[in-house]
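Lab notebook, page 48
Experiment: co-folding of the full assembly
Goal: obtain a model of how the components sit together before planning crosslinking
Operator: M.T.
Materials (sequences as entered):
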Amino acid sequence: MHNEIVLAGFGGQGVLLIGKLLAYAGMKAGKEVTWMPAYGPEMRGGTCNCTVVLSDHQIGAPVTKHPHGLIALNLPSLDKFEDAVKPGGVIVVNTSLINRLPHRTDVVVVPVACNEVAKDAGTAKAANMVGLGAFLGASQLVDVDLVKGALEETFAARPKLVPINLVALSKGYEIGMALVPATAAR
Amino acid sequence: MAKKLMKGCEAIGEAAIKAGCRLFFGYPITPQNEIPEYMSARLPQVGGTFVQAESEVAASNMLYGAAGAGCRVMTSSSSPGISLMMEAVSYMAGSELPVVIVNIMRGGPGLGGILPSQSDYFQATKGGGHGDYRCLVLAPASVQEAADLMHEAFDLADKYRNPVFMLGDGLIGQMMEPVEFKTEIDPASLPPKPWATTGCKGRNPNIINSLYLAAEELEEHNWHLQRKYAEITKNEKRFETYNTEGGCDVLVVAYGTVARIARTAIDEMKGGPVKVGLFRPITLWPYPTEALWETAQNAGKVLTCELSCGQMVEDVRYAMMGRKTVAFYGRTGGVVMGPDEVIAQVNQLAGASV
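Observation: model returned without errors.
Model output:
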């Protein structure tokens, strides 16, 4: 197993955080992991992204030109990375902020209104968790319970934030599970 | 101890503390700010001291003073900041002071940019400051190795009374990977440094100095340093090979992040018509010249890949002594090459149909 995932949005949406949760859960699952943020000047006011690699083997390049998965939380992210995703990969599209669907027909598309789902869960700020949940539901890449554990540990200093984020993650996960037939992406 | 997911910069900071370092002097610069940030929080917890100096020039001279007093001490910076420290580095080499200096390289020359680069290879391995001096240069390729080498850096600095550089790039500094800290040293348990200026009550004063006005004395001091450098060269070369058993068509030589990218390229080419191996120097000075030649003898052609316009390639060519052609591929300015680019270069060199 070797998976490269790009998580992208604008600064403040929490894409680096969900990337860390994914990497952390991967580590707990016994995988080799890397988490690499794009730390260039484009972070300031523009798009922000990170690359997470999960593998059964020692990881070489921590960055990728052709990821297996993409979580796009805003339109510039989808514009930038859609064409790069490997055929058969998974693209999560945050339809709350992206007014188009991917043109790609050779990937699994998971459209989720992340902001609205998060708002229903209690706060629109947890849109990133919905996106991550949807990706996990569709890809079954890492056990969602490990991600929940990573979330609880990460928010240990601010336990009030845990339940609301867990709900958002679970709701996203259910949407991703329901959208993708068991045979499609797994 | 369980593995933790940490940024390279944070792991370097924690490893330094675990190696018994209790003093940090520095000045902020991207992409290594997480090191001083981490040290400013952690050092007071372990009875250490963090000082943000007024400049890199000041920080490096604080290093001189603290090392002279016998403490395990470090600084970190990135390329332009390291340039500002070069005067003190030469003085510390001349005065034989054990210090660890971390350079998380960014693109240059001048202020350049903040993205990853390997264009300070010459500065780190060939001098940078004035005079006939050498610094040990360690080049990690993962967060775990960065942590492990930090330990070694302090030990080597003390063993040889010499400045040691940790040469990483922005990727190594910013990337998160699982890391395990294998040992922890109590600074009180470190061997005493009888040469240090710790107060001379009851003994003759120690003098830490690099000034020798008599030509013969300065020459003798230089011969002494050269004997030490020869000893280091004999003892401390480190390297790693990958997929070189039984020889290869193309041997890629790369260090740090680029070695990882080359490794991915090699894995993708496995089973194809061109067999590719990797030689990764871990010490850039002393350079594993002989081991590289031995490995290259079983290779058809040699390709050096760097995030620079061609610096380490000179040491690779020196190791080949004209006995093999050495091709070079570099990206610079903060552009990181992808495995596909390495594959294209390898195929072109091997003359294989792609």
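Interpretation: The interface with chain B takes residues 20, 23-24, 27, 32-37, 39-41, 57-65 of chain A (CB under 8 Å).
Next step: discuss with group before ordering constructs.
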